[in-house]
Specification:
With 148 residues, the protein is mainly beta. It is built from 1 helix and 9 strands. 5% of the residues lie in helices and 29% in strands. It is globular and about 55 Å long.
């Protein structure tokens, strides 16, 4: 299913409109809408504007995800991955980039910095309960099944 999303761009630059790199790509690339390079030191993060706002259909969200190439080659990722953009948000989408590498990373104007995925949202009704049903796992925490 395809949705048409109105995408007002903060500038008249059509290159900032998110786009899919290939026919079957799940994520649309989003670019850095910055006038000059931003350097992210090792172990640091930066909020990078994209120049893009969008009208997300009710019952959906936009997930902001890292680009695998930036992660593999530069150890740069999206800090709160996946970031969630709610359907009722109308402001500019920004990306929190984190440099997990050992060297500084430079974000250049119009660089592809993340990908946006449109996803359906199922809302829950949370109710208070005194007892939960039993399962084989029960309350087993992180790593409770071992490492091998």
């Amino acid at each position: 299913m395809q949705h048409t999303l109105p995408v007002p761009v903060q500038t008249d630059d059509a290159e900032l409109v998110p786009s899919y790199a290939t026919l079957n790509a799940s994520g649309a690339d989003v670019r850095a809408a910055i006038p000059s390079p931003i350097i992210i030191a090792p172990g640091s993060s930066a909020v990078i504007p994209t120049g893009v706002c969008m009208e997300i259909p009710e019952g959906h969200e936009i997930q902001v995800r890292p680009r695998s190439g930036l992660a593999a080659k530069n150890q740069v990722t999206v800090l709160n991955t996946p970031g969630t953009i709610d359907a009722d948000y109308r402001g500019e989408i920004c990306v929190i980039l984190m440099n997990l590498g050992r060297e500084s990373f430079t974000v250049t104007p119009k660089m592809r910095i993340a990908q946006l995925v449109l996803a359906p949202v199922v809302r829950a009704e949370f109710i208070q309960a005194n007892v939960l049903s039993a399962t084989a796992r029960g309350g087993g925490k992180f790593g409770h099944t071992g490492t091998h």
